[in-house]
Every structure is written in C-alpha cells, then in structure tokens.
Amino acid sequence: MTYLYVAYAATWAIHIAYLITVVRRYSRLKQEVEQMHKK
Amino acid sequence: MNDPNAAHTEAEAIIAVANLVKQFGRFAALRGVSASFHASRMYGILGDNGAGKTTLLRILAGLVPPTRGEVTILGKNNPREVCREFGYMAHPSLLYDEMSGMENLRYFACLYGLEDARCADIIAAVGLDPGLQRPVGQYSQGMRQRMSLARALLNDPKILLLDEPFSNVDIRSAREMVKLLARMRNGGKTIFVVTHQASLLDGTADEFVWMDSGQIINRTPDLKFMETA
Amino acid sequence: MKKAFPILGLLTAGLLSYALYEGLVVAPKEQTMGEVQRIFYYHVPSAWTAFLLFFINFLASVQYLVRRDPKTDKIANWVVITIGVLTCVAPYAIPSLVPAGARASSIATTGVALVGLYFLIKKFFSEQETDMLALTTAEVGVVFCTVVLVTGPLWARPVWGIWWTWDVRLTSTLVLWLIYVSYLVLRRFSSSGQTPVLAAALAVFGALDVPLVYFSIWFFRTQHPQPVIGGGGSIDPRMLHVLLINWLAFLCFAFLVCWSRYRLERMKREVEETQALEALLEPRSALR
Amino acid sequence: MSAAPSGITLATLTKDVRLEWRSKDAINSMLFFALLVVVVFSFSFDPVAEESRQIAGGLVWVAFLFAAVVALNQTWARELRNQVLDAYRVSPAPANSLFLAKAMGNFLFVGVLEALMTPLFVVFYKLRVLGPAWQLLPVAILGTWAIVVNGTFFAAMSLRTRSREIMLPLLLFPITIPALLSMVEATTTILVGDPSTSAKFWIVLLATYDVVFTTGCLALFETVLHAE
Q1: What is the pTM of this model?
Q2: Are residues C154 and A10, on separate chains, in Cβ contact within 8 Å?
Q3: What are the domain boundaries of chain C?
Q4: pLDDT, mean of each 10-residue run, chain D (228 residues)
Q5: I need a labelling partner for A35 at 20 to 30 A (CA). Which of B51, C208, D11, D51 fits?
Q6: Range of the domain at D109
Q7: How far is C39 from chain A (nearest CA, A)?
Q8: Which residue from D minimizes the CA distance to B152?
C-alpha cells in the first residue's frame, strides 16, 4: 500500500522540484533585468 | 557554365555589404559595416586586433553567417553559391602537415575539379619548387605561407580573401608576394589583404580600408591616414 | 492575458485534485494487484504526456530545420500532408496493415492529429519560436519521463518483487529519456551560435530512433518473456474513464508548465538580445 | 564544374588512408587500446565455455563500441589541426562527399580494430560458433557501419561544443541502443546456435537502422558542417 503513496508523492516531488528550478531561473532573470534598467 | 559576371563592367561593384552585424554572444565583432568593392582592385584592410577584419573576411567567404545585414557577391546574396570564385587564406596554413606541398595541392585541385598540371604552375608562380618532397609541417613559416597562398590561388578565383598573408614572412619574399598579387590584380582579380604590415602594400594597393572596433572608419587611397590616427 | 495564467492554474489544480480523488477512491480495486494498481493512473498518463511532448519537439525541430529555406519548407508541407492522407487511407484500404490491438480509426485520427499539429505549430510559432518550443517541450518531456521511470519500478516492486523489468514500454521510455537528456546536454555544452541547428538535427535523429527502439525491444521481449507493466488486453471501462480524467488533468498541467517555461525562455532571449544590442552601441574601450 | 562527388569522396578517402598509413601513430595506439580492452574484459569476465557463449556476444560488441568511440574522436583531429576544414568548406565540393569519405575511412579503421580483437576474443573465451557462422559477416558489417555512420556525424556535431571528447559518446550511445541490441542478440543467437531462434530479424532491423541513419546523416550533414 505504501508504494502507492510513495509513487504519488514521488511524482509530485519531481514536478515541484522542476517548477522550483524554473521559478529560481525566472527570479534570477528578473534581477538581471532590474540591473539593466538601473544602468 | 555561363559566366554570370561577364557583363560586370569595371565600374560596377562585384561585392556589396549592407549594415553587416556579427555578434558572438555579447561581443560585437561587426557593428554595422556597409561598403562596396570593385573588380580588379587590391584593398588593404587595416586595424587593431579585434577590429573585425577577420570576421569580415570569413563572412565574405561564406564561412560565418552574419547576425544581421546583407552580403551580395557577384549578384548572389549567399556567398556559398559563388564559392568557386573564392580564394581564402587564413592565419593557420589550411594544409595537411604530413603531406608535401604538391600532394596537398593535388588534393585541393581534385575538390575544384582541376588537373594536376595546374598545381605545378601555381607552386612555381609563388616561387617554390614543385618537386619538393618535404612535408609541409617541416617548411619554414615563410614557405608555408607561400604554399597556403598557392592553395588559395589554385582555382584561379576572381576574389582573393587573404588574412595576414605576410605574417612572419621575410621582407624579400613578402615583397615578391605583393608583386605577384599586383600582377593578379591587374589580371582582373579583386584582392582583400588583411595585414598589420601596411607599408608593404603602400603604392600597390588601390585603397586602404581602416577598421576599428567593428566598423569601417575610413577608406583612403594611401597611408596618409596612418600618421593622423 | 496576464490574469489568464492564475485562472488556468486554479482550474488545473481543481482538475488534478478531482482526478486524484477519482484515482484513489472511485476507481474499482483491481482483483489481482489490489491497491497498488492505482499507480497506473499516474504512470500511464505521464508516459502519454511525455510521448506527446517529445512528438511536439520532433515537429518543432523539423520545422526549424525546414523553414530556414523556403524551397524545403514547401516540400515539407507536401510530405506532411501525404503522410496524413496515407495514415487516413491505408488502414481502411489495406486492413492487414492494422496491428492486432489497434483499430483503423485510431490510426486515422493519429494521422489527422499529426497534420493538424504540424500546421498548428507552423501558424502560431515563428521560425525562432519553434526552437524555443522544441527546447521547452524537450525539458518538460524529460521531467514527465522521469516520473514514468520512477513510478514504474515502484509499481513493479510490490507486484513482481523486482525493481526493474525490461518491459517493452518501460524500456522504450528509458531509451527515450536517455536520448532527450543527451539533447539537453548538447544544448548546454554547445558553444557555437548555431546551437538550435545542432539540437534540431539531434532531435530529428532521436525521433527517427524511437520506432527502431520499440521494435528492437519488442522482439527482444518475445525471445525473453518478462512480466508486462500494466498488463495488456482490455481494461475495465470505469478504470479507463478514470485514466482519461487523469490524463486530461496531466495534459493541462503539462500545458501550464510548458507555457511558463516558454515564457521564461522568451524572456531569457529578450534579455540576451538587449544585452547584445547594448554591446553593439557602446564602444569597446576595454580593448584600447 | 567541380569533380564528380564520388571522385572527391575517393580522393578524400585515399588521402586519409595514405596519411594514416604514413603516420601510423594513430593506428598503433588504437590497436594497443583495442588489445587492452579485450584483455581487461577477459579478466573481468572469466566464465566456463558454455556460459561464455551466452555473454560473448555482448562482450565483443561493447568492446568494439569503446574502441570505435576512441577512433571516432580522432576523425576530425587532422582537419582541425590547421583548420583545413575551412579550406574544404570554402571549396565547391559537396559536404556529403566529405562525410562519406570520413565514414568509410572510419569503417576501415574500426574494421581493422575488430579484425584484430576477434581472434583474441575467440582465444580468450574458447569460442566455437554453433549456429550458421556465415551470418556473422552481415551482422559485423551492418553493425560496424551503424556505429561508424552515426559516430562520424556526431563527431562533426561535437566539434562545435566545449568538451568535445565526452560529447561524442553522450550523443552516440543513446541513439545506438537499438543497433547495439540487434548486434548483441544476433551474435549471441548465432553463437548459441539454438535452432528455434534465428538472427534474421536482427539483421533486417540492423539493415533498416543503417538505411534510416545513413539517409538522415546525408540529409543533415551539410547543415552541421556549416553550423559555425
């Protein structure tokens, strides 16, 4: 039974991990844009 | 093969470049170069390192696609279509070190569909001995430059693109090479010579093209501009 | 347009939780495998979504290579149309072509889907954008593929006591995963300005490889039979219903992830573009 | 009028073979590498005669694959040394002639390696072919071409990347999996000689793989060669 929940949890863990990398890249890019505007 | 540019009179430009831009990531090698060049002329392209001389030459030869801008050569806007009319020479020798000069030229002659006799004439024309069996790797730098020039002249091209042909070549052979290029220019070829030894071309080149940080800043018939720079 | 994203986000979240509820509670318990069979409702939709994403990547890469030259572009249009027509006509004209499980109509629909998708991408994405689409779908596809490769063994372990079975579908997914990870590695390591061209060429190669991978492993399996993930044959219609809901939910989720990754990619390229323009304007004093 | 493309391919091939023969440094180091691979494999797997027949197919082909990858990394070394590739790219010679010449050159080169490694494998593993031995020839030829054609293409592609040596196997191995599986299974079926199974399917699959990827390479090589 636990394999079922582990599998579901793993699925979402992978998706969320990927989304986090996307969001982090997004914020890093935002900072870069701010710096460019300031310059 | 009909010669598309037979109708080209001397006045008409055979090479036209319109706001050429080339960027390698953030480094802008060319920042909008517009110019036109005419047949049977010798152009000396001068400028510091990083002025974009080599990039311009490689774009004309069709080796590098421009980021923006137009290149029209002999009526075609893609240099690849007229690559038969190019002779290209670069810093490296573009020859196989393990093969002798004659073997190298015989291989390149095959690429252009020429017979072997042509190779011997060309090697003699650049003042080297066709019978030399030594591999190019063991040539002196001067000889290697001459053999590379021979490779560029092999297919009797209309347009010669030479990138620093005289670098570490002794003065005497450099002068001979200039005389040879002058004869070729009078024969109707358009020659571009990128060099740091402008004095060698003084009195021979029709026009000097001064480049700085990716742009053509001046075009003068002689080297007077050098003193004021 | 900006507020469409959060609304869609909420909708998808709702759909996903509904699908989760369906999968865990509503769907009937499988007699032999019991509860653990419910992994099926995440495993199979993720696989289908991953294959769909890789298929879009293939179409986008073909377009990127083809649209560089108008002549080849026209030829490609006709090739796609003929493929579409063939897949519609062939299964009806030559029934023997239809493999055992499939019905003629399903092949016809995939044919139409191919042509439709190709021209849809052609309409909505410019040449440069197809490259961005290819990168996005490849990256999100690899994420879904990872999910499949994680849930697969988690399913095989309780049912057959082994972590990995060289099952046809699972192994094909693994090879597909390897191909597209090498695609992403090529994109990161390629230093030349022509990275999109190289990546597109590799994507086309990868897609050409897929049928060969499937057939080689399929024949390999007939010689060394092993347990098959998810079992073949027909399944209980109620289960199928839940499966389709889950797939719809995952498709919406994948669409949103792709959309945000695409926006990130477009923004990255715009930033690079402006930086390049800036470099163009100010003189390079550094080299003096 | 440039020379016939086949003329150029032949000239490039003879040039490569002559240079290879003249310098011989690459071929010697490669032969020694192949020998090392065989010996290392033989140490790590030392089964009884019957078992060895089961796994020999896999061992032989994996060993060939590694020897081939090291050889394929050298494909463009000579062209890069003095940027001779630019001289070829400026000339009107078609890109596919260069590709075919390089692929055939590699095919010969890897063929020589295999010719050396096979007897060593037979000796170390006391192999005796039970099934139809003549089928091994098409498998070897089609299999080597499958590795070489993609290898040459990906070697040209990885010229444009940073870490060139590691890039080639990363690109080549995933794409070669079906071909590798076919080669290994065909060889094992032939070695074991079990009448119920036949290597025909694998040979047909290898042939399709070769046709598909040779056309793919010829269609895309020009784009990759000029992707500066």
Answers
A1: 0.90
A2: yes
A3: 8-228+235-270
A4: 78 91 82 86 74 82 90 88 91 93 94 89 82 88 95 92 88 94 91 82 94 95 89
A5: B51
A6: 5-225
A7: 6
A8: D87
